[in-house]
Amino acid sequence: MLEQSSHPRSLKAKDSVLCATTELLMEGGLPAATVDAISARSGVSKATIYKHWPCRTAIAAEAFGKQMAAAIPLPDKGNAVDDLTEQVRWVSAFYAGPQGAVFAQLLAACVTDPAASPYFREYFLDARRAAITSLWQRALDRGEVDPAISAETATDALFGPLIFRLLTGHAALTPEEADKISSACLRGLLAS
Amino acid sequence: MLEQSSHPRSLKAKDSVLCATTELLMEGGLPAATVDAISARSGVSKATIYKHWPCRTAIAAEAFGKQMAAAIPLPDKGNAVDDLTEQVRWVSAFYAGPQGAVFAQLLAACVTDPAASPYFREYFLDARRAAITSLWQRALDRGEVDPAISAETATDALFGPLIFRLLTGHAALTPEEADKISSACLRGLLAS
Amino acid sequence: MLEQSSHPRSLKAKDSVLCATTELLMEGGLPAATVDAISARSGVSKATIYKHWPCRTAIAAEAFGKQMAAAIPLPDKGNAVDDLTEQVRWVSAFYAGPQGAVFAQLLAACVTDPAASPYFREYFLDARRAAITSLWQRALDRGEVDPAISAETATDALFGPLIFRLLTGHAALTPEEADKISSACLRGLLAS
Amino acid sequence: MLEQSSHPRSLKAKDSVLCATTELLMEGGLPAATVDAISARSGVSKATIYKHWPCRTAIAAEAFGKQMAAAIPLPDKGNAVDDLTEQVRWVSAFYAGPQGAVFAQLLAACVTDPAASPYFREYFLDARRAAITSLWQRALDRGEVDPAISAETATDALFGPLIFRLLTGHAALTPEEADKISSACLRGLLAS
DNA sequence: GAGTAACCGAGACGGTACGTCCTGTCTTGGA
DNA sequence: TCCAAGACAGGACGTACCGTCTCGGTTACTC
Predict the structure, then answer these.
(1) Fewer Cβ atoms within 10 Å of its own Cβ: the N or the C terminal residue of chain A?
(2) Do chains B and A touch (3 or more CB pairs under 8 A)?
């Protein structure tokens, strides 16, 4: 009761909106999450919606990101190679699944809708990046990975290829492909 | 892939459209390349435009792709590391430049507009992929790279991270960053 | 028939549209009353226009009908023959004038555009028919006309020929011709 | 052989066009008789079609008029009242039938398409008017009708009301209604 | 019987209007 | 005071049809 907003209705409205948006995203992807549709399903008026978010992509990013937050677990198999390989496998499976399409749509929409980018980053990328950073730090502590490479760079190296494939659809995101990518990145492309 | 009509007018119309689209893309990015705007500037009617392309994104992909085709040269520095590093540097510079934004918009639009994907692939990705494949083959012949890794996978590994950054904007695409990525991928993420 | 919206803006928009449409009809007839043109001149968006009317012909019918409502007066010369003759003369003069062409275009358009028919009837024909019915009743009361003939039939008999001529243009609509028609209808075609 | 065009192909083309147009009119009314549709079905190119007719309405008028030419017989019941009543009944039945709608569409289209009017008059109205003129002359000879009224005026008086109803749809065109109109016109509207 | 000219099918094209859709702002009246 | 309800301007979409034009092959007259 203490920490809630002075206007509890705001909170209820936000929740309704996010909930309705999630449903719409599940049913028809980002194109279905029209502001009008969100308003109609949530019972929250458009004016109120635009008081809380700058554009519809932002709503979708927050709604989808919050829901996905716990979807991908942090593995701990005892060594960096297995952990990172596992993580790449998880993420690629997520991308390949039905929600991968929504993720791609959101990512794409943020290019057009700059106002939504912070939301996408906050509710989506940051969580993932934090997870990897944690994995990476563990691996660093164990001396398993190259200390000259930042977690940032490692994240890009491991997940960039997956996102590339997801967006262009030039190749499938099967577990085998995911393994090829993670092993290539981990061991390096050069001949030893 | 494109059928050449028996009527030479077709060719003139297509050229006008592509030319106008390129101009519009330069001036205002993908959002400016409205079908109406393309029609108005090219003098080609909308009906005709829609006879040649399935949607506006396809036009933009073809126009932009054709123009970019020769923009990125194939380096030949005598060894794989330098060649691939150079290529990554070129591509990231391109992405970081003004046309990188248009590229990102196109890539994003293809997610929404599946009909445009083939055009984007044909006029954009394939050229790049072919270039890398050629570099990769040269490196393979010299025994400089891991023969267990396909050119496909290598391409994803090297350019996926750049595209990831371009789209999410979570980090700059400076030459230094590009070098970090290429070196990380080339040498591998693991400690040696 | 028209629901008045709780939002007064609706009324303003409708007024603007009808006003702009009337102007366009005067300037270039029905072909000039494009939905785009109406939208541009009235400052009302196409979407809003299509919320109020089913098709452009309906707008034109309402606009033109409302304006014409009071254009033709109800004569009262003391006897049926003079009243009806006068009315036919008025109407034929109206048809022969510049607005007759618009009337014909509207009537014709309603054939193609069934959705517009109710509008044309409500805002155009009904007013005329009511006027004749009133005249006819007066004449009936005075015993001047055949009580076996309904006002409906009389209206058709008196104005049908004018409309026939207006549409096919097979003969002029001069006052003399109007008199010939009204006298023929009134006295009957048969020899006495 | 002597009087045929120097290029018999023209004749075949005209025939094909008229035939195809008639079919289309039967199937979907005037809206279905698109120039493209006529061209496709007849196998005659659009360029050739436009060599023979000024606009599509003209084609439809000629096609439909030729086909309808003999559809309405000239009655001869021995006296004017019966002949004219019968004729009005026939015509109203025709208007009320499926082809009446096409007739109305054609009549309406000629308002918009002035170039088609001569075709409509030649292939449609003239035949009807000639029939009535012949009936009227016979009645005049027998002294059955008012010699001060021209066949022209009589035609307008008798058929104008039917066309008025056909176009506006404000009342049905049942045989009973047709009889009411013809008797009203024939006997006059005034009380005797 | 070959040459030549008119003609024709096929259909691409510019133009114009259509009616739909969605966004983000703004207004109103009720809670 | 705050909000749902939803009207609204703006602007792009993709479609349809018109009447014109261009092309290359065919036909039917001419020599």
Answers:
(1) N
(2) yes
